[in-house]
Amino acid sequence: METMVCPMGGGATRLYSSLTQALSSSSPLPLPPSHLDPHQPADTNLDPDFCQEQRGSAVCPLDPVELLRECEEALRDRPARFHRKFINLNDGDSAPSSPIRVMQWNILAQALGEGLDSFVQCPLEALSWSRRKYLILEEILTYRPHILCLQEVDHYYDTFQPVLAGLGYSSNFCPKPWSPCLDVEGNNGPDGCALFFDQSRFELLDSMSIRLSAMRIPTNQVAVVTLLRCRSTARCMCVTVTHLKARSGWEWLRSAQGSDLLRHLQNLVQKHASSPTADPSSDIPLIICGDFNAIPNEEVYRRFITSPLSLDSAYKKLSQDGLTEPEYTTWKIRPSGECCATLDYIWYSRDKLRVDAVLEMPTEEQIGPNRLPSFSYPSDHLSLVCDFSFKEKE
């Protein structure tokens, strides 16, 4: 369906309404000026033929720097946002020319935030979609990941898919079979997992949605698995987003779901390696992002760390010894009490990928006494952002 794009600079409301339609334009659009954004790695290796072909189409990114300014304008009356720095890990001697930025984030389903989660210290106004949509987009636009893995997405079709398509992302969404959002009056449909990737950076090879099983019994949790080829290096990678069963008492189920996901990934990697078109020397690196609802001493964490797929957790790189997860990735207050825990992870193939930078966690002082979500931050989970590069083949 052809729609007109409203001109930029007409205020955030106009911007938002124009972006939430299927974007198309007859005039060429500029590629995003990465050099204007200090948080964003410069994309020096984009496929020029692809970018030229896509000019003026829905795939061609709009200017994310301008969109970020529009979001900030819509949020001008809120408290200061968290300022988080990237911790560089490569000692500056071999900085990659074009790292792959990955963001993992449970964005908090709108229906759950307003309806079921009972964040007793968070003002109801801070949970309104009219505010949260700008805060979520601001977070994404600030870090501009090449790969974006989201959980608890219940505004995929009316917000995230059309807005991010206008920024050049392709995506896949898998809703939960029986989402708790559907129990909330006035809900926007089921929540689920969504995986977005920058089409100027990656080519889609394959994608599948998985309903996770426990001992061969289907559960309510899902995963999206995407096989991508990097346009600048021609190297392939497999990216997964998932959200495991919540609440204490379900540790055994999370462990079974994690085992099921690892089995699927092992089968996929083996299948690709044995295909006639595969490069015999190319092993496919994995990146697995998710809200595992599991602290690091749980069985499902141990299953991932000891998997034959040689996985490691990127956020351990923030610790002094490189062995310890952050103190928290979620911090909230519910009627049952305060919860401060590490539940979210970015797993990666340690033999095939290098972690070049990790976004630090905000401090307790930044988060504030009422914890999350808040007027400053739209979710009860913090985003995780890492820069990766391919290790050289032996």
Characterize the structure shown.
- Mean pLDDT is 85; it is low at 1-16, 18-39 and 41-60.
- The protein has a 7-stranded mixed β-sheet, with helices on one face. Strands 6-7-8-9-13-10 form a 6-stranded mixed β-sheet, with helices on one face. Strands 11-12 form a two-stranded antiparallel ribbon.
- By secondary structure, it is an alpha+beta fold.
- It contains 9 helices and 15 strands.
- It has one domain (86-390): 4-Layer Sandwich (Deoxyribonuclease I, Chain A), CATH 3.60.10.10.
- A hairpin with a 2-residue loop joins strand 11 (330-334) and strand 12.
- The relative contact order is 0.15.
- Helix 3 packs antiparallel against helix 5 (129-143) and helix 7 packs parallel to helix 8 (299-305).
- Helix content is 23%, strand content 27%.
- InterPro entries: CCR4/nocturin_mRNA_transcr, Deadenylase_nocturnin, Endo/exonu/phosph_ase_sf, Endo/exonuclease/phosphatase.
- Belongs to the CCR4/nocturin family.
- This is Nocturnin.
- Its cofactor is Mg(2+).
- Its main location: cytoplasm.
Low-confidence stretches: 1-16, 18-39, 41-60
Helix-strand pattern: HHHEEHHEHEEEEEHEHEEEEEHE
Instruction: Report strand %.
Output: 25-35%
- Reported by name, the CATH topology is Deoxyribonuclease I, Chain A
How many separate structural domains?
1
Determine the oligomeric state from the structure. single chain
The CATH first-level class comes to Alpha Beta
Q: State the CATH architecture.
A: 4-Layer Sandwich
Described by the principal axes of the CA atoms, the overall outline is: globular
Cofactor: Mg(2+)
Pfam family, one: Exo_endo_phos
Domain Endonuclease/exonuclease/phosphatase: 103-381
Region (Disordered): 23-43
